[in-house]
């Protein structure tokens, strides 16, 4: 067998602006490293959702999430439907039959500029007593140090970068077939996923789905403030606050010893992205007033206070759980957010009305281009 040449490569990645969930942290840490995606990132991830009657969802109490455009609550939707990512998958069995090892497959992907999402048993390299299967994002390798560069949630749930030795990686990647696709909401892949960033605009299909769409942004913001009342298993937008409150009151009433804080962490991530979005919209001239500092102080920071309070309650095993205090604080955050974003929404409508001819001409140019 031909001896493998020593090499190393790291794909572009940045410290993520949000860290509560691995799938969102991965998307933002990668795309934030590509300036071409800035407009799109700020145009999306506005609407949020949670489960109706969240307090009854035993296995999914942490379900509060946001999505970029069309709703899809299934595994890896945020990557599969992302216009900036060329997303593919390969069955685990095929990798085992076509490559000498999963390490060899991963190295080949990285060499060809593909990030890899792979199911690993984290107990191998983290020293847990029991198997702990989770998806890790692989973005680089180094043969000299025999390290894989990855990113995943750490033991307290934050999305962080970590290094995995080659030997540990091979053992961790040796996952039995039954662990794949273990349910629609288990976050388990049905194979190994790999994707590249389509930074070259010529690789995008005709249209503006990967660009700033100010009309869509204004519409999404309106839908966030006035959520659609539809009969489904989900509630959207500003109504998510009420579902969280019902859950916290339920925990207090039943004297549970733990209260899932993941939903509130995700809500905080949503506020962090909104602060950045408002600054961007002002800098680009879409807004007359810079509301980002006000939003940061009155919404994002207050949401952080609520999150920290909930974490402290869990440290005390939720004894004398201050659910009512949490709910009052959430009501304050909700009220402040609605007032600020209502003004932002009004300014965006004014901007669109003032530039309606410009948008009509752009749409005509796109239609003519696609018909030629």
Characteristic terms for this protein:
single chain; 372 residues; alpha+beta; 7-stranded antiparallel beta sheet; 3-stranded antiparallel beta sheet
Give a description of the structure.
This protein is an alpha+beta fold. It has helices spanning 22-31, 38-43, 77-80, 92-98, 102-111, 123-126, 166-173, 214-225, 240-254, 262-283, 292-315, 323-354, 356-371, and strands at residues 8-10, 48-51, 64-66, 85-90, 115-121, 133-142, 147-153, 159-165, 192-197, 234-236. The strands form 2 sheets. Strands 1, 4, 5, 6, 7, 8 and 9 form a 7-stranded antiparallel beta sheet that branches. Helix 9 packs antiparallel against helix 12 and helix 10 packs antiparallel against helix 11 (292-315).
What is this structure, in a nutshell?
With 372 residues, this protein is an alpha+beta fold. The chain is built from 13 helices and ten strands.
